[in-house]
């Protein structure tokens, strides 16, 4: 090509030489040059279509993985809104039921085992809990250390069925924990405390990186107090949850515990919940 624009005309190649040079570069042994160029363009177009199809498939697979991860971090209804590009504003919920649990003697268990033992224990336990929650109209809000938090009645309201859903989750987690062994204390049984409460709260997404769907309100604190003032392998509940379960004519057995001194609340009448 440099010879084609040479300053001296005699050094410029003829069209015949140009054709021969192009034929050598393209591997053309015979035939029409234009036909060969068309075939090369068709092959290029076909290769380009295959590359676009491959990249599109990879993009869709990555998009599906991202949406699946988002739905695991947030309630499905909230994750769907975000995927659609819709805003999710904080919302007030008149009545929800919240569950808290923690492991009895977790500090001692952690101190006597290796970090891997603790991680293995929590992973096994909370994998079981996750499977239980997945079967019900409930949402795992978070795990903090050995604390496990579940809520029902949000972000999609479900009438008063949230009390039954959370009470069922509580009873099933008590049964599930009996199948979990402590790696470095094989002869000891793992025990948990559970507490549930029904009341109002505000919920919304907090943060941009690793966003979480968080709950705020006095009801959350009360549910946490039901767990902390409870007893091992029992579910403690408040009057409000007891009333909802009675109203829903559930088959749970509710036994009066009596007056309990609850931090920040004073004396509260609480109940034991069994099934």
Written account of the structure:
- There is one protein chain.
- The protein is an alpha+beta fold and 275 residues long.
- The chain has helices at residues 15-26, 33-73, 76-83, 106-111, 115-134, 161-177, 218-228, 239-247, and strands spanning 91-103, 139-144, 147-152, 181-182, 185-189, 192-206, 212-216, 235-238, 253-262, 266-274.
- The strands form 2 sheets. Strands 1, 2, 3, 6, 7, 8, 9 and 10 form an 8-stranded mixed β-sheet that branches.
Provide tags for this entry.
two-stranded antiparallel sheet, 275 residues, alpha+beta
Unreliable stretches covering 5 or more consecutive residues: none
What is the 3D shape?
elongated
Q: What's the pLDDT, averaged over the residues?
A: 87
Q: What's the alpha carbon Rg, rounded to whole Å?
A: 33 Å
Topology:
Blueprint: H1 15-26, H2 33-73, H3 76-83, E1 91-103, H4 106-111, H5 115-134, E2 139-144, E3 147-152, H6 161-177, E4 181-182, E5 185-189, E6 192-206, E7 212-216, H7 218-228, E8 235-238, H8 239-247, E9 253-262, E10 266-274
Helix pairs in contact: 2-3, 5-6
């Amino acid at each position: 090509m440099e010879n084609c624009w040479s300053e001296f005309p005699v050094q410029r190649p003829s069209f015949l030489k140009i054709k021969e040079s192009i034929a050598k570069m393209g591997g053309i042994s015979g035939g029409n040059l234009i036909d060969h160029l068309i075939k090369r363009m068709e092959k290029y177009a076909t290769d380009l279509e295959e590359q676009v199809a491959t990249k599109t498939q990879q993009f869709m697979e990555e998009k599906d993985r991202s949406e699946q991860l988002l739905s695991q971090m947030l309630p499905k209804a909230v994750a769907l809104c975000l995927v659609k590009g819709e805003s999710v504003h904080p919302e007030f919920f008149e009545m929800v039921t919240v569950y808290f649990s923690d492991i009895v003697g977790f500090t001692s268990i952690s101190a006597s085992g290796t970090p891997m033992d603790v991680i293995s224990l929590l992973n096994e336990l909370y994998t079981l809990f996750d499977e239980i929650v997945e079967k019900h109209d409930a949402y795992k809000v978070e795990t903090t250390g050995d604390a496990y938090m579940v809520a029902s009645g949000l972000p999609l309201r479900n009438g008063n069925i949230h009390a039954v859903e959370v009470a069922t989750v509580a009873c099933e987690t008590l049964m599930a924990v009996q199948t979990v062994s402590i790696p470095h204390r094989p002869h000891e049984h793992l025990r948990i405390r559970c507490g549930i409460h029904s009341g109002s709260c505000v919920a919304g997404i907090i943060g941009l990186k690793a966003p979480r769907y968080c709950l705020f309100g006095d009801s959350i604190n009360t549910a946490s107090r039901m767990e902390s003032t409870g007893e091992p392998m029992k579910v403690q509940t408040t009057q409000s949850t007891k009333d909802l379960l009675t109203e829903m004519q559930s088959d749970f057995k509710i036994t009066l515990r009596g007056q309990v001194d609850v931090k920040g609340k004073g004396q509260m009448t609480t109940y034991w919940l069994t099934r």
